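Step 1: inspect the first sequence and its tokens.
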Amino acid sequence: MSCLRNLSVALLLLVGPASAQQSVETPNFRDQAQRLAEPDLSARTRIRFLTAVDYPPFNFLDQRGRLTGFHVDLARAICEELNVTAICQIEARPFAELASALESGEGDAVVAGLAITAENRARFAFTQPFLRFPARFLVARGTDLSQSLRTGLAGAEIGVVAGSAHEAMLRSFFPQARAVAFDSPADAQAALRSNRVRALFGDGVALSFWQASEAAGECCEFAGGPYLSDRFLGEGLGIAVRGDDPQLAAAFDYAIGRIVRDKRLSELLLRYFPISAF
């Protein structure tokens, strides 16, 4: 996730948080037919969320130096839903220190995009994913990619970042396409703007911020998709807790389910994402 972390930092400085009045489609990765028991957290005296400050719009410091972002507001909404706001704390640390801090008991949960991998599952318990990162095609505004997609993009030159998960995903999902690999997202974006490739295939969240930025100049729009893949893109975002505290993860799942049901998760996405990645 390091490339997305660096790119999103730069793009948020360009475009800022989204307005709630913008039209943004918001996905729902929760099964609303699922019924979870209401948790009892009365024995807890403190719930400490750990996050980072270098991954806007998910977690960052605003112009006044206050901790904010999608993850931060989600943690606050969870505490409100569980009626434990009085005992909730949110603390920022360097991302590289979050896992060890959680393991050593310096916090009760990490809400900062800690990857849901087999290795991390052996160390921590996770909530169900509440958001996933889709891959998307970005094209010059007004370009119709639908016919090419129906034929598997046969012969179409598609820009990707060399060595990325999206390059591997493009070659697997669309083997007839001509993948054109670039050294960096900026190089791939420049190729799309100069019509050297038919489309750009990459992370939908990062591309949504770029196409809303001044650098893009309203050049481009999404076409096709979204495309999801656990194999190439991982399981998405969840909240990590210590492995010996699955009750807390279950409580968070209960709260997130209600937040999704009441469309408050949609409100958070509308607040921080200028163009829907979906």
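Step 2: inspect the second sequence and its tokens, then contrast the two.
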Amino acid sequence: MVLGLEKKLALYGFNNLTKSLSFNIYDVCYAKSEREQMEYIEYIDEQYNSERLTQILCDVTDIIGAHILNISKQDYDPQGASVNILIAEGALTPEEIDESCNLGKGIKSLEHETIHAHLDKSHVTVHSYPEHHPENAISTFRVDIDVSTCGKISPLNALDYLIKSFDSDIITIDYRVRGFTRDINGKKFFIDHDIKSIQDYIDKDTLKKYDAIDINVFQANTFHTKMLIKDIDLQNYLFNKDVFELQPRKRLEISDSLRKEMIEIFSGMNIFQEDN
């Protein structure tokens, strides 16, 4: 779906609205032994290292029609990675770009370990958090992505691509429009497009795989959607193990543990925790 107005709004000056998309996913896995848990973490770390995350964010930048100014990325020890991309709404001439920006060519030539930069229009960031439970053999991989834009470009246009870029069991999405812009007569506009639900920007075939709920505050131009995978194919959640190696009762036990973990993350609380 293309985001836009049915009738273009004639503005006085620049579009000052800030549109922010926060996208959070969880991938859940069963890894029983300590070795399996560590191998799962290593696998995730390799699959979603800073190089791949950078490519995903570059694709996002292309989808929303922005231009890369600067890329910074980092892999962490023992695990995890972060990527930050500064973007502009339109292409800039070399004279308009600060010499500290690297035009998307990476940071190998930069000597600084940490970089602080002024943004031209917007930014895209991603952080990954692989971890495992110390007792119940459940490992999780979390990815946080933030896309913040100003002006006409919208982060919602990249939402469906982001969902398909990860193995997502639980998804939480926040979209906010802040500030205001003015038309040529000076009238304030606090949003420049129609939106009823974030789900309208997700492919229908993708939505069929999830239970989804909305929590929206239309008066504040704030939209929230939570999604939980409907079906669990146990084989897809076993790390380095075949489902037929397990007895039927064990399969059911693992499936129940996985669903419990997902529901707790989806709801944001330990709803299965026993009272003391």
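Step 3: confirm your contrast with the notes below.
Confidence is low (pLDDT under 50) at residues 1-6, 104-120. The first strand starts at residue 18 and ends at 30.
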